Fold this protein.
Amino acid sequence: MRIAVCDDEKKFLQQFRAITDKAYTSLDIVTEEFTDGVELLRCFKTRSYDIVFLDIEMPSIDGLTLARKLRELSEEVYIVFLTGHIEYAIKGYEVNALRYLTKPAEESAVREVLDHVLKKQSSEKALWVKDHEGEHKINLNDIIFIEAQNQKIVVYTVVGEIETRGKISDYEEKLESHGFFRIHRGYLVSLSKVSGISGREIKMADGSLLPIGRTKEQSFRTALISYANKEAF
């Protein structure tokens, strides 16, 4: 999980990091701290964050204005406001804020928010992919197939394509337990996005026709039937 905390009080940032460091020592949580909303906005354009904690009252750009700009860039990021003035709460509906925390934030309240997001993430299942623009979170349900092109990997999704570097075998290892199957040395497909089989070709939900390796054909059919039966119940 990637967290951004933006507050012009450095003392609060230190307190917040102490809370996350103490509560989540065994989890892969990265917290980045910002004292200026403009800097957070700049970084947000090239990095993906799961959750952003925003102080409402800041000098360069207030938290509500910043939240609107962040929401224009991402519909998925969770936004939590930090404030001592509860009257701001109604404004949070404009940016679909997850919650308000009063300052100074209590450890139990911070943990409750983070636990909620972690639970949501575990049910949604996502893959992080890095390209020249930054890091992107892709829901597994949105992936159609992954293709290896020499040293490049192309992830085809329902909303477009993302290119990155890596080995398709690494993606196979990560995704095989989530309904993905390596049909060919160059292709890893989502079984949920297979729409048909014709001879030695597989038709995907986006209309793509992909070749299946001769040695993979029988095991693929078995995996597809097993997946379909599991999803039916």
User: Anything to note?
Assistant: The chain has a mean pLDDT of 86. The first strand starts at residue 2 and ends at 6.
